[in-house]
Amino acid sequence: MANLSRANLSRGKSRESSEAKIDQVLEKISVIEKDISSLKNGQQSLEKGQNTLAQDVVSLKQGQQKLEDGQTKHYDLIQKQGILLEQVASDVKAVAEGHAVIRSEMQRGFEEVKEQIKFVDDKVTFVADKVNKIDQKLDEHIRLPAHV
After folding, report:
1. In whole angstroms, what is the distance from residue 95 CA to residue 91 CA?
2. Residues of the chain below pLDDT 70
3. pTM of the prediction?
4. If I label 46, which of 36, 62, 118, 119 is the partner at 20 to 30 A Cα–Cα?
5. What are all long-range contacts of 135-140, with beta carbons under 8 Å and residues at least 24 apart?
């Protein structure tokens, strides 16, 4: 009987050991199931993030297209403004050249007027001298005894 109880004891210990191992395996399975659940939640979160990123990429592409369209439009406007500015600069240069020609002609005209004024001054001086001489002669003639 002693052998029997040893066998029973041995079986009991073996059973306890097996049950302990089964409990350990069940605990590990429970932990694994929790980890799987956590991984599934993480995967769902990543999928949501991926969808958000995909939407953001689409939004960025639309924004980039709008930006490129705006750049093209503004580049065309800038080119047109540049051409207009070149035309205005050319017109201003032409006006400035015209003013230079007008100034030159006015200066030439002033020089001619100055020459004419000098000529008239010379003639007036000549006539004044003649008048003075005639006036002196008249004064002398009046002083002659025949007029006294």
Report:
1. 6
2. 1-13, 147-148
3. 0.37
4. 62
5. none
